[in-house]
Design goal:
The protein has about 350 residues and is of the alpha/beta class. The protein folds into 2 domains: about 1-250, 3-Layer(aba) Sandwich (Rossmann fold); about 260-355, CBS-domain (Roll), CATH 3.10.580.10. Helices cover about 35% and strands about 25% of the residues. The protein has 13 helices and 16 strands. The chain has helices at about 40-50, 70-75, 95, 100-105, 110-120, 140-150, 170-185, 195-200, 220-225, 230-235, 240-245, 315-325, 345-360, and strands at about 1-10, 15-25, 30-35, 55-60, 65, 80, 155-160, 190-195, 205-210, 215-220, 260-265, 280, 285-290, 305-310, 330, 340-345. The strands form 4 sheets. Strands 6-7-8-3-9-10 form a 6-stranded mixed sheet, sandwiched between helices. A hairpin with a 3-residue loop joins strand 9 (about 205-210) and strand 10 (about 215-220). Helix 12 (about 315-325) packs antiparallel against helix 13. The protein is globular, with a radius of gyration of 25 Å. It starts with a strand and ends with a helix. The structure holds adenosine-5'-triphosphate (ATP). Adenosine-5'-triphosphate binds near residues 13, 15 and 17. Adenosine-5'-triphosphate (ATP) binds near residues 37, 38, 41 and 42. Pfam families: ABC_tran (PF00005). Keywords: ATP-binding, Nucleotide-binding, Transport. It is an enzyme of class 7 (translocase).
């Protein structure tokens, strides 16, 4: 656990970068520091590995003041990933990753073996091991940066905007993979970003900072979206926080109807002819499109995208319903077979129900 106790930083020119920051970053969790430019996120991160010394307060790792340990020893237990990866340009990928193990005295072969293992962990093909950083894409470089930070198996990872130098699609895949890696390695992570969507996607806890390094709110993502502490946090979260909080509510409480499913080549039953729409499925149960029983022979209407009935959120179900011209969402199982359909109206009722339950829980 990393504990900030009333930490402040005033730079020599008088800039108040961080003011009275107190928070606890729990073990094996991702704590995100988010806020507008200049609010002291990087300063806070760099105080944790003593690249910057606080002007006041204390930082503790597992209860011990970080000033009581030699800096080199402290940093050995802390991996650091920065924007643009910060790789050594004249070292190959494998050599970059092996930097710290080599410094710690690991022999060349063992260090290379570890590099290759880490490349696999972060989703890099090992054929890239002997390339130089400039021969990699931005996303690949970021992965090398993460692998290098993990190389000495530190308990703590500090990550400063690690995914911000790549395009949104690569960024999303880096985020997803990062979450998978974290599920495996369970590090205590402090992650800086200015992007609230990234914070909500990856954070277990989110610290929203405002100008001058003041902590505006420290909460889990769902709580942040449901109960922003003040107008600043609310504005920072953006206009669609109502829809985004549905990401944290499971869709498995939705009542999926199965009477609207009809197999290809099978005549609809009498009761089905009363329904406005029927979902045509193939022999294996995969959705093919919507048909109108009153207009036999018309081409099926595409379903848009389905949602995973067991594990997707209400947000995914709602999105599927609003994207489809029929206003119905198709729920599928892990094999992509339709398990039922649900209307926008029923999803809206489930949202109201979830809202009421969360108000009652307060
Ligand atoms: N070495 C320094 N000397 C003086 N002022 C500094 C120094 N480093 C940072 N600052 C100032 O401290 C404040 C906080 O900077 P910091 O880099 O911690 O913010 P940030 O939230 O990480 O910003 P960004 O999102 O733009 O990277 C800013 O006003 C910045 O100009």
């Amino acid at each position: 656990m990393i504990t900030f106790e009333n930490v402040s930083k005033r730079y020599p020119d008088g800039t108040e970068a961080v003011a009275g920051l107190s928070l606890e970053a729990p073990d094996a969790a991702i704590t995100v520091l988010v806020g507008p430019s200049g609010c002291g996120k990087t300063t806070t991160l760099r105080m944790t590995n003593r690249l910057v010394e606080p002007s006041g307060g204390r930082i503790l790792v597992d209860g011990a003041d970080i000033r009581e340990r030699p800096v080199a020893q402290l940093r050995r237990g802390i991996g650091y990933v920065i924007q643009h990866a910060g790789l050594f340009p004249h070292r190959t990928v494998a050599e970059n990753i092996a930097t710290v193990p080599r410094l710690l005295g690991k022999d060349r072969r063992a260090a290379r073996k570890r590099s290759l293992e880490l490349m696999e962990l972060v989703g890099l093909e090992t054929v890239l091991a002997d390339r130089y950083p400039h021969q990699l894409s931005g996303g690949q470089q970021q992965r090398v940066g993460v692998a290098r930070a993990l190389a000495a198996d530190p308990a703590i990872l500090l990550m400063d905007e690690p995914f911000s130098a790549v395009d949104p699609i690569v960024r999303k895949s880096l985020q997803e993979q990062f979450l998978q890696i974290q599920a495996e390695v369970g590090k205590t992570i402090l992650f800086v970003t200015h992007d609230i969507d990234e914070a909500i996607r990856i954070g277990d806890r989110i610290a929203v900072l405002r100008e001058g390094g003041h902590l505006a709110q420290f909460a889990a993502p769902r709580e942040l979206l449901e109960k922003p502490a003040d107008a600043f946090v609310e504005q920072f979260l953006g206009l669609d926080r109502g829809v985004r909080r549905l990401t944290f509510i499971s869709s498995n409480g939705l009542n999926l109807r199965t009477d609207a499913l009809v197999k290809r080549g099978v005549e609809p039953e009498a009761g089905q002819l009363e329904l406005p729409w029927l979902l045509l499925v193939d022999e294996a149960g995969a959705p093919l499109g919507w048909i109108e029983p009153r207009r036999p022979g018309a081409a099926p209407i595409p379903i848009g995208h389905p949602f995973r009935a067991k594990d997707d959120s209400l947000r995914a179900a709602l999105d599927a319903a609003v994207l489809c011209p029929t206003g119905w969402a198709v729920g599928v199982d892990e094999a992509g077979r339709a398990v039922g359909v649900v209307s926008q109206e029923e999803i809206a009722a489930a949202i109201r129900e979830a809202h009421r339950a969360s108000l009652e829980a307060v």
